[in-house]
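Retro notes - structure team

What went well: the batch runner handled both jobs without manual restarts.
What didn't: labels got mixed up in the shared folder, which is why I'm recording both outputs here explicitly, each with its sequence directly above its tokens.

Job 1
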Amino acid sequence: MLKVTIAMKLQFEEIMRKHQQDFHPVVKFHAGKEKIGEIDLTANNQDVTEEIFRETEGFSKYIDARRRQGDYKFLVGGYDELRALYGRSELFGGNVNESNTKSPPEPRRLHLGMDIWGEAGTKVYAPLGGMIHSFAFNHHYGDYGATLILLHQLDGFPFYTLYGHLSLRDIEKISAGKYVSRGAVIAHFGEPNENGHWPPHLHFQIILDMELKQGDYPGVCKYSERQKYLANCPDPDFILQMRKWIA
């Protein structure tokens, strides 16, 4: 059961603002020389049809075309987005072909992290010092694939950062409890066969209470549980600080 209160969330946000200038970039981006674009994967984007997102290859071509079209190094977005595309996997409860029933269970469709879409092999850096909390290969279709979770502490406040859709080699020779330095290369964007069958990208998420979970934490929740999960998973841009560079 989540233990996060509004007071805790506000305290965390205050600490983040205080230390924001100290965070190392999670991905390298040269402002002035390179561009970042925003991508909307909700129903508002009518280009993202079931035909596009159902198959990984087609979805990847769509993302690549969007990046080339704007000459973007990265496309970013996703926090607090309601995305129909999770119907591509039974993992999120419900399938795009699922027939209507009298009382269908509510599927998970609300995204809790920020996605950074880019080239496979892109380096991922630790934004601040911490400890490896846990890791796992969540290999189901539509899942995180290779996943890493770090534990941090700032001003006595503990919190976690989750990195999903990584290269499998990034978690093959690491161990829980190992210290990670600020700015250290901790991972790389994985290929579809190791990242849960998604176009190459990083799912970055802040978590206040891991609820005793290891190597995994929901990155998508039911809309009816939106407030609870958003309180536990604050805006990732407190650390990423990428929205200000969107062209």
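Job 2
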Amino acid sequence: MKPTNKQEKEVNKICCPKCKSKNFKKNGKRKTENRGLIQRYLCNNCGYRFTHDEGFFRMRNHPNKITCAIDLFYKGVSTRKVQEHFQAFYPHNSSHKSIYKWIIKYSKMISKYTDKLKLVVGSELQVDEQEHHRLGNKNWFIDAIDTETRFMVSSGFYNKRGSQEIKVVLRIAKYKTENQITLVQTDSWMAYRKCLNKTFGLHKRKALSKITHRKLNASKGDGFNCRIERLHNTIKERTKTIRGFHGCLDSANAIMKGLEVHYNFIRKHQSINCCPYELAVPELKDKLGVNKWLGLIELAKLPSK
């Protein structure tokens, strides 16, 4: 029986994790309690026996269950409520701590992949920061959004709001948008101009400027950065139910990175009537499938070219 096109594509993704060779053959199956039979392979070059890691290596729960938990969490359901939900449908239930670990692990995994994507965006970028609380202290979420596609281009969660933190977010935004941005709009905070000078090559002399920096001062009646402020309201809808972050800075940043993924790839945007990635990364439109969390995890685990 000849393999289908889908099966051929799956085989093309596989390579030996030890020598990176694609010269292998099937070599039995491994039986698992909750994930069924998993195909084993034997490398013909180095003799290494392996299974294809699609992002769930050594995980004791089915990928559909794990991605369902992540999706429910970012739609506003707490980890304990997700645990109660699974209790009715899965005999092998998971604790709320395991669900929290899944969220942190896969948010980090996917964001490493999405932070390297090249985007098709408009000419205007809006940058702003939002205050959050972690362990009773002020923390800051700094992000940048493309006003045309509504794609959150870059973001970061930090324990302070300084030039170094803003430059990290702007460098990622510049890498992903390349030379498409001609206008960056911010509030009137003075640190933005210095950071834009370092990252985008903004200079005081107009003849040397690669981009234009527009500052809005709401107290003087200049208005607001409406696109990014609307995005911050969406973020608040989820974070206000958490009542502040209670873990380390790294886990809080992972949760916010997951929110970025949910906003860009999962949640349908009302103003553009589609997910932002469909406009900003059109080549992924046919690759993610129905379960987009699962599709993103599989893409994140593909060997880099």
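One thing worth noting from job 2: Strands lie at 24-32, 36-43, 49-51, 124-134, 137-146, 152-158, 183-187, 212-216.
We'll revisit the folder naming next retro.
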